[in-house]
Request: fold
Amino acid sequence: MTIANSITELVGNTPLVKLNHVTDGIDATIAVKVEYMNPGGSSKDRIAARIVDAAEKSGQLKPGGTIVEPTSGNTGVGLALVAQQRGYRAIFTVPDKVSEDKRAVLRAYGAEVIVTPTDAGPGDPRSYYDVSDRLAREIPGAFKPNQYDNPNGPLSHYYTTGPEIWEQTDHQVTHYVAGIGTGGTISGAGKYLKEVSDGAVTVVGSDPEGSIYSADDPAEVHQYKIEGVGEDFFPKAYDPSVVDEIVKVNDADAFEMTRRLAAEEGLLVGGSSGMAVVSALRYAREHQLGKDAVVVVLLPDSGRSYLGKIFNDQWMIDNGFEDVVKRTSRPSI
Ligand code: PMP
Reply:
């Protein structure tokens, strides 16, 4: 019988699928790794499982313990899923700008959500960072994963995402493209692919315009709308030595591709996925990659989390993306 013992056993082993319609003029194979097929709906399920395993082994998490993390998004879902299956309490602090839908998902998985004021920055005791630090100190048996510093984030991609890509492409992968948030996805899988291919795999980072990773000058760092990627500091989970080149993408181009992936490729994915595909296609065109190139692009999460934003014409128009809407919206009768 092929019955999994628990939903958490089904993390990883996500499929690779070829892009056929958004790749005009490109001879290379562009294949995407569809991480929304993970049980919690994103690549972050991978890091949650390994971070909790490691904390159990090191004794940081004991039976009945509590996981506390400042996160509103995919990492929270992954951690909540693993926590409930293993009997831990999970508490997430989230700024009040985070939509009620996202908070509802965390609560649905059994986590407790503490909402903090968005205008309270790091150092302010009311901020979501500081509240999570205080709870981690005050609650007996509390463990704070700290995904930005935790080496088990990149390691989860070194031990799962990287080997999966290598095997799924019959060792033919030539390029690996991923967005950079904490940096774990690109650093972990990129390191594995470089090692196993003796340096033959080129690792391409994808970064929002305004993020520090691709800024030529610190003055260029500014706000952007793509979620889950880019930073204004360098986290420990990011290893720049693994990355050969970074292709930066603006919000409009990322969102246009995100809408095209749903409409033309049947892939309802998030904005960081659209961004990564834009980087991959630009890189392939600029470097004139031939038909022997196999470019694997990691798509971190599902478009269902962005129905009220990227896939909502009014939100797009209100946020200055009217041209994108004009080019990609379908007429209704
Ligand atoms: N896209 C989304 C939607 C994410 O939530 C994340 C994780 N922050 C990433 C991309 C980037 O992954 P990583 O943190 O491993 O760099």
